[in-house]
Design goal:
Length: 427
């Protein structure tokens, strides 16, 4: 298997229309096992694993676009031209990406426990820092409480243990890369271009992608409907398999946006069950174009500002940049414009050094000059850029030789505090 394709499994008749199922972050294609007996009565079902999940090779992908490209390459290799698509969590993001960039390939779409933007970029990059420091075990141990309702978890200990082991055996580097992909994913301003019938499914008790996220999808996609699954949390296909299966069958048998075409792929005329589908909310204007929650920079600032603000957010975090921009006034605004363009837009973007190396240089310089506030900020940035606490310790030990023991002593105190804050798992 090449780095450009994904591990996959095919079930169902060879001559049936194709339905692709995308799994959630930290899960494998087995999360759809309970749907397969019914779905394969109507479709040729193709499931795929994310990189480093299940038995999939650990070829990390750091964007949703790259994951979508790999899925398309996989389907191309199988000779699949048009297909219906249902995805959960990050699988939903991949489906939305396909509907936006390959509208001629997708016939109909179902987004389960999905969102146009999953949390915040800072939260996803923070999760990457925690995993890089502690491994996946803390994430694995807390997965059931995020995925299932308390009652289901108590009644199904075997499924809970399955969930924990599934996350625990995921490749950490690929999981971190997927976190980075979700950090940069934001299609709120693009939903109006999704041109296929779309079903949005959400559990009433889902705290990961709550009903407000589902309603944002329905409000933004022109031809979308909302299905609320009562008493269900995030991993709805596992917790309520029958309900989700009925919703998918009804949607894909009645809303397949296709006629017999390439490969003879058309909807199968099956008797559709009748789950309760909530009507969509009143039409709302699509959200304005947003970059990480802030308006786009002024046009006359040029490309270096835009490149600089992007990397500044990725390295220092949205929360920090938001605070700085909110506090800027006529006195400080030009200075922040200056450092965004020259420090971030021209220096940090240069290809000669990677971000890890630039973080090492920056930490050393800040220790030497005793800039402790900036040292705290860039210790956080170094963790986000991939340095481990052990590597940061080695950098500071090295500065003790060349910058002086007192400077390093103060730096260790600052870095220790920041590392404890950033790498301690929640809960």
């Amino acid at each position: 298997m090449s780095e450009k394709t994904l591990q996959h499994r095919i079930d169902g008749p060879d001559d049936a229309p194709v339905l692709v199922l995308g799994a959630a972050l930290g899960t494998t294609w087995h999360m759809w096992d309970r749907q397969i007996p019914e779905l394969t009565r109507h479709w040729r079902v193709i499931r795929f694993d994310l990189p480093g999940h299940g038995g999939s090779p650990a070829h990390a992908a750091t964007s949703i676009a790259e994951l979508a490209d790999r899925l398309v390459a996989t389907l191309d290799a199988l000779g699949v031209e048009r297909f219906g698509y249902a995805g959960c969590n990050i699988g939903g993001a991949i489906g939305t990406q396909l509907a936006l960039t390959r509208p001629h390939r997708v016939t109909s779409l179902a987004l389960v426990s999905s969102s146009p933007r999953y949390g915040t970029a800072d939260a996803w990059r923070q999760r990457g820092v925690v995993i890089r420091t502690n491994g996946l075990d803390p994430i694995a141990r807390t997965a059931p409480e995020h995925w299932f309702t308390l009652g289901f978890a108590g009644a199904q200990p075997a499924i809970v243990e399955w969930a924990v082991q599934m996350v625990r055996t995921t490749d950490p580097g690929c999981y971190i890369a997927a976190c980075e992909a979700l950090a940069s994913y934001d299609v709120r301003s693009s939903l109006g271009r999704v041109g296929v019938p779309t079903l949005v499914v959400v559990g009433s008790e889902d705290q990961v992608t709550p009903t407000t996220d589902a309603r944002s999808l329905v409000a933004g996609v022109p031809d979308a409907s909302l299905a609320l699954v009562p008493g269900t949390s995030h991993l709805a296909p596992v917790e309520q398999p029958s309900a989700v299966t009925e919703l998918l069958i009804r949607h894909f048998t009645t809303a397949w946006h296709d006629k017999p075409g390439p490969g003879g792929q058309a909807a199968i005329g099956a008797a559709a069950p009748k789950p309760q589908i909530a009507p969509p909310p009143p039409p709302q204007a699509p959200p304005a174009a947003i970059e990480s929650g802030l308006a786009q920079p002024e046009q006359d600032r040029g490309g270096t500002y835009e490149a600089g603000i992007k990397i500044r957010r990725e390295v220092l975090g949205d929360a920090h940049v938001d605070r700085v921009q909110a506090a800027a006034d006529d006195f400080t605004g030009d200075f922040h414009d200056f450092i965004t363009r020259y420090a971030w837009g021209e220096t940090w973007t240069r290809p000669g050094l990677d971000r890890r190396t630039r973080s090492i240089i920056t930490l050393t310089a800040l220790v030497a000059r005793g800039h402790h506030d900036e040292l705290a900020l860039h210790t956080r940035a170094a963790l986000r850029n991939g340095l481990t606490p052990t590597e940061i310790k080695e950098v500071l030990l090295h500065t003790a030789v060349y910058c002086g023991v007192p400077a390093a002593n103060s730096a260790f105190a600052v870095a220790q505090r920041v590392i404890r804050e950033e790498t301690t798992p929640e809960g």
